Amino acid sequence: MSKKRVYTFGNGKAEGKADMRNLLGGKGANLAEMNLIGVPVPPGFTITTEVCTEYNQLGRDQVVALLKPEVEAAIANVEQLTGTKFGDAKNPLLVSVRSGARASMPGMMDTILNLGLNDEAVEGIAAKSGNAWFAWDSYRRFVQMYGDVVLGLKPETKEDIDPFEEIMEERKHAKGIELDTEFTVDDLKDLVKRFKAAVKKQTGKDFPTCAWEQLWGAVMAVFDSWTNPRANYYRRLNNIPDEWGTAVNVQAMVFGNMGETSATGVAFTRDAATGEDVFNGEYLINAQGEDVVAGTRTPQNINVVGSRIWAEFQGVSEEERKSRYPSLEETMPELYKELDAVQQKLEEHYKDMQDMEFTIQSGKLWILQTRSGKRTAAAMVKIAMDLLREGKIDEKTALLRLEPNKLDELLHPVFDSIAVRSAKVLAKGLPASPGAATGQIVFFADEAAKFPQSILVRIETSPEDLEGMNIARGILTARGGMTSHAAVVARGMGKCCVSGAGGVKVDYRARTMTIEGKVYKEGEWISLNGSTGEVYEGEVLTRKPDMSGDFGLIMDLAAKFTKMDVRTNADSPKDAQIAKEFGAKGIGLCRTEHMFFEGHRIKAIREMILASTVDGRKRALNKLLPYQREDFEGIFEAMAGYGVTIRLLDPPLHEFVPHQLATQRELAEEMGVSVDVIKAKVDSLEEFNPMLGHRGCRLGNTFPEITEMQTRAIIEAALNLKAKGIDARPEIMVPLIGTVKEFDMQAGIIRGTANKVFEERGDKIDYLLGTMIEIPRAALTADLVAAEADFFSFGTNDLTQMTFGYSRDDIGTFLPIYLDKGILKHDPFQVLDQEGVGQLVQMGTQKGRSVKPDLKVGICGEHGGEPSSVKFCHRVGMNYVSCSPYRVPIARLAAAQAAIE
Ligand code: ADP
Ligand code: MG
Ligand code: MG
């Protein structure tokens, strides 16, 4: 049997069904399913997504030849069901041509309605319906849609004017009218003529009059739209593979524009914003297709309750509401009841909130689409839990219904929804770290406390800015990507950040920023939306997110199914505490260097770096010791009973020394040396490629006294807590090893120091000693390393950097182009590259466990909080993932889903 390319539906029968969405697209599969469950749907057929792939390989002519017999038969079926004839002048069948991929894709082709009309058929429709206005309005719409979408008259950018809209506006102006509905039949006839002339002018060809030619043109245009730039962009953004293709749905028209007993609208079975179980929606009388969402007329609520709330919000009196904006429940009570029954049936059937399209033609209800409705994070959580409580879905299904990344919305402050609507957008950058922030501009990190609520505006941030970033309500940078310093640190802090806002020009000297010629001074108010990347003028009201009880229930459910622990990356007791509240079971990465920037510590560390003798270094390290010990005590205490992985000093030392003359002078004075000595030392730390330079365990191996001091601080802190009855569980982690020898050398120092402290104190504690696997060579020789190590933690930031050979700090110059050209599917620093880097992770884990079966393995890169990467870690068999505190719930949900899947 030859391959089936067309699936018909209509009159309670269908060749497809809901679970065939891969083949029929979401729209097509649901149109078929609705037929099967007795929901009134106009008859039609679906051309499969596979044909789209064939089209891309074989081209138009061959695909038309392949499709022709089946499409002709399917049209004949619709003709028979509707009692009309395609291409007929007296009794024409009109159809819509609709795209429909597996996942809903707003970047795809616009739908074409009323296809099959020409100068004769329009008269036939007019005579048959007894409504010439309706016939010509439909024809006018068809020529416009077909001209725009199939013949390519629609302008590429929003700035350019649609030629048809231009003609419409011109005619309205000439006639002194405002609404499309005010045109007379003669006006509409005139418009059609003008539209066709515009088509001829721009394409050099006459508007096609043959229904079949129209149909094939539209079908091919749907296939073409799969590869248009908008669709490509959307696919990339949402991880939709190019190979999927789109289906094409051809369906008999039903008309909501036939007069006062006709209407069209959209409806939701539950509230998409709050998740509340209330039927709601909007409609318009005597309208077609997307009129409701197009915004040319004010859409009316379908039910009385919604309508009253709307009126109150708009300041419309009850009388005016009833006369000008009545609900469907009031205008067509019987049909409203019917629609209500359908929505209940659909939700009962799909067991999820549905978003439906309906049309009423002369008092008869038709459903044109149903799908799982898009919803806010709050609604997502509430609906899943409500459906679970209503017994409609089970626990696993409830968890799988949730989109882990969306939980983020619930964890950060948000803008007041009304206030943000009237806010003026000044600039747009990357949504680097979600949340809402409003405050006064400061340009220097050490001035962040100048105002009670400040927004730190920088060209870029650096480790020195850490404290200020922590104080500021939000961070705005002109440069840098999603993995820039500002972005990574802000996410870690759960702080709102917009990065890489190219339109912002910062002048540190003048303490101003300029956006589109307008100057903003220090102290002026701005607001940042870290979820959209938008920068607003002035102060926009924010509020705490509503973390309803359902959120906690979801986390409990996740805990029930998960196999992997979620730890956190935290450098302070405060972060550790937040993460613990979100359910983190320990710390997977505590970066000791972040502690070095605070207060007096930076002085001591600088002294250590600048010392020219071992003794000098030891003296400076001795000053650091109490600070470190105190930090560790705080963190161990916050995470009592859980493992705390502490990474020994990692970054290149030049990050800690002053690069400005004034600070260099200050330091010289303090140390009692000349500024030239300082300068010379700073210069000597300069490296061509610091990320591949003197850092990580290379520091500890060249300056063992650093490792000694840090080990001592860790062990002493743990012993101090033990004395207080607090269960501290240190896990000491050596960074950046490439050879087993590098690890062994460090391990020797650590064990030696620990034993010394145990002896001094006459007491002991258990501790683990492990390493990061972040250099490809370490992954390749993981069996050797595992012999000596208690645990592995994959540092996938560096591992990605070194496996790809991309400098994470310089990726901004080529990454956007690579993504654009499809050379890379994702930023590999955000989404773990399972194909390449993932192999190293998998191999490292397997090799490690081949010599030590119970080797503890985790991940601590940025990827530890990214759902697809978390799922990968589950499959590799990791014991835990570690991520920034605010991503802990996301990772927990993703880990549970991985276990269920
Ligand atoms: P989208 O995917 O953008 O929602 P649709 O294919 O659903 O596009 O169609 C756009 C609009 O046209 C919707 O309002 C839909 O209800 C309407 N529509 C589509 N096909 C028909 C039809 N056969 N009869 C009446 N209205 C239709
Ligand atoms: Mg639709
Ligand atoms: Mg690293």
Structure description:
The protein is α/β, with parallel strands linked by helices and 901 residues long. It has 5 domains: 1-118 and 210-253, Dna Ligase, domain 1 (2-Layer Sandwich); 124-208, Acyl-CoA Binding Protein (Up-down Bundle), CATH 1.20.80; 263-375, ATP-grasp fold, B domain (D-amino Acid Aminotransferase, Chain A, domain 1, 2-Layer Sandwich); 413-543, Phosphohistidine domain (Glucose Oxidase, domain 1); 562-595 and 634-652 and 695-900, TIM Barrel. It has 36 helices and 32 strands. The protein is elongated, with a radius of gyration of 33 Å. The chain starts with 5 loop residues before the first strand and ends with a helix. Bound molecules: adenosine-5'-diphosphate and magnesium ion (2 copies).
Q: What is the CATH third-level topology name of the largest domain? A: TIM Barrel
Question: How would you sum up the global shape?
Answer: elongated
Work out the helix count: 36
Mean pLDDT value? 92
Major sheet strand order = 13-23-22-15-16-17-18-14
CATH class of the largest domain: Alpha Beta
Q: What keywords describe this structure?
A:
binds adenosine-5'-diphosphate; Dna Ligase, domain 1; single chain; alpha/beta; binds magnesium ion; 901 residues; elongated; Acyl-CoA Binding Protein; D-amino Acid Aminotransferase, Chain A, domain 1; eight-stranded parallel beta barrel; 5 domains; 36 helices
Summarize the topology.
Blueprint: E1 6-10, E2 13-14, H1 21-36, E3 44-47, H2 49-58, H3 60-82, E4 95-101, E5 112-115, H4 121-129, H5 132-149, H6 163-175, H7 185-203, H8 211-225, H9 229-237, E6 246-252, E7 263-268, E8 280-285, H10 291-294, E9 300-301, H11 304-314, H12 318-324, H13 328-331, H14 333-350, E10 354-361, E11 364-372, H15 377-389, H16 395-400, H17 408-411, E12 414-415, H18 417-421, E13 425-428, E14 430-433, E15 436-442, E16 454-458, H19 466-471, E17 474-477, H20 485-493, E18 496-499, E19 504-507, E20 512-515, E21 518-521, E22 525-529, E23 534-537, E24 542-543, H21 549-561, E25 565-569, H22 573-581, E26 587-591, H23 601-610, H24 614-638, E27 643-647, H25 661-671, H26 675-685, H27 697-702, H28 704-723, E28 729-734, H29 740-761, E29 768-773, H30 776-780, H31 782-788, E30 791-794, H32 796-804, H33 815-820, H34 837-851, E31 856-859, H35 867-876, E32 880-883, H36 888-900
Parallel strand pairs: 15-16, 16-17, 17-18, 25-26, 25-32, 26-27, 27-28, 28-29, 29-30, 30-31, 31-32
Antiparallel strand pairs: 1-2, 1-3, 3-6, 4-5, 4-6, 7-8, 7-10, 8-9, 10-11, 12-24, 13-23, 14-18, 15-22, 19-20, 20-21, 22-23
Helix pairs in contact: 2-3, 4-5, 5-7, 6-7, 21-36, 22-24, 23-24, 24-28, 25-26, 28-29, 29-31, 31-34, 35-36
